[in-house]
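Sanity check

After download, print the first record. It should look like this:
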Amino acid sequence: MSYSVIKKYGKVSVELNAGNYRLRWSYRSRRFCLAIGKADTDIALVAAEARSQEINADILLGRFDESLARYSQRYAEAIAIGKKGLDLKEVWERYKKISEKRIAKTTQKDNWRTTDRCLARLSAHGLLLERPYLVVPNLLEFYSVSTIRRALADINAACNWAVKSRLISFNPYAELVRELPKGKRSERSRECFSPADIRQIIKAFNSNKAGSSYVNYVRLLALTGFRPEEAIALTWNDIVTVEGKTVINVNKAHSKGELKETKTYDTRNFPCNIQLAGFLSKLPRLPNENNLMFPSPKGGYLCQHNFLGRYWRPIVGELAREKKIKQYLPCYNLRHSFITRLIREGLDVATVAKLVGNSPKMIFEHYLAADIDVELPEF
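Expected structure tokens:
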């Protein structure tokens, strides 16, 4: 986020950030940030300058208050709350309890567990509401920036709830995400498999003794561009006839052990062409209690995590090493490949977006692969 330094008094900078004044400085290798208020009057700037001079003087005189209670009424109130036994972990546990019915089970299993692990790493001092500056340095010893960023998002949400519930007077963690060092942002590859690559992948799965159990699952992903969690959740009841045509009704998803709504919360009917209809007609109905089209070998919901680690990466990785396909790509890129193929064959982006459950904007930004083998027209 962009900000500008207005003035600097010794080690303390007065900054303008998103229409607010704040102070930033370092002390004993720790970074501190103190929000002052809206930058809407000259008085606010005078207050920010006065407070920055006070903090700088205290640093020079060796009497700097690391709790910040000396410089902010809100931090003083946080200390008072801490004396009553309420710390960050208690706020987090109360937030989880009040939110468990409205937050998706998958979010609770994944994101909340990450936050639980991060809080477990903090010392008793690090959990004190009046010492938010200890959180990031402590966690950087154990976790990546991206992991800490996810945990801080949860912590921020919990403290915002606590403020609204009048458990605490303000959220001392609101600024922490801005203080994180910039980590390398991972971006999902938009590259796609060629039709020849996909045929090689299907052939390799079919000839692999263990992987052959998943060949039909891979075929469906290639033929439909479904998200893996949508394909895993499909049942035979989802194959329906609409106006005399066979369609697949995509109405749910299964991820991290939970059956839930689709990613966009929408239901869509996916039309079957001759190739897809023929594939479905020959697909064996394996016995399982949920009537799943692609059950795991044990009859339950297929685990995408296990599939990727035990079958996709070894099988497709070997094909790439042997130069039988152009390159190794993640399983999710079967979706990219399907979307790119439809657009290159002439379907408009709005139609493709409707088919795969996305928006045209998302198609352009995240899914459409460039054709690097194109021949440029002459003039």
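If your output differs, re-run the checksum step. Summary of this record's structure: The first strand starts at residue 4 and ends at 9.
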